[in-house]
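chain below, 274 aa
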Amino acid sequence: MNTLERFEALNMRQALMDAEHLIQSVEQLELTVIHHFSHGVYAREMHIPAGTALTGKIHKTEHLCIVSAGDIEVMDQNGYKRIKAPATFVSKPGIKRLGLAHKDTVFITIHPADTQDINELEAALVCNTFKEYREYHRMNANYDLDRQDYQAYLSQQSLLNDQSENILHVDDYHVMQSVIDGIDIHQSPIDGQGLFTREAIERDTLIGQAKIGGHRTQLARFVNHSHAPNCLLWQDLSHDIWLVSLYDIDPGEELTIDYRESSVLNIGMMRLAA
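prediction:
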């Protein structure tokens, strides 16, 4: 395995964090936030003036969101949408949003709560970074979330009716005696078989090639989807695809990526070749 000091890769989570750092570098607007409590329910009501760009924290749990007034554009790991009041939707765990309000907007999130202490609620409900959320997800080992998100991804691909082949969904791949030293293939709690490391992997490590000369390797064949991945795909100057670690990975962990990122990467590759 090789370590990159610096590399360019498709990473929607890092793009959201970069946007947050950019927003934090300019003069901040103090938003009005109202906290409501009733019989074990907490509602956080935020008033967002028109023209405001903002990011939200990463939620650990599924919860209801209500846009009771206004018009706001939202980008997250799953893509883009424009939300106009009145609107109610369910937000899945691990989501971080970048928003731009076109009109004065009231955005409410609703959570179960056994305390009215705001600091305790924040600690229980949100994370500040994707690395922190990945650790929370790993410690709780709730693989149902990964399976559900994979099904959501398949539904999204079906709705898009994208005729291009995804990197991970082609029939041909190189057959290797072993994937790479220190990586095993065996039963995954997420789906089928997966990739598991026998040794610690440092952040930003080139684990191995997932696609060589247009053909998949076993790294691409067996890497599973997660809504909180610890790896991503990176394309080198030869248009080969590598599996790269996002964080420090412990021995025994399964290597995962976000399949949505692989889809967008494949579209980008096709455009480069056109």
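The longest strand covers residues 98-112. Residues 9 and 234 are 5 Å apart (CA to CA).
thats it, cya
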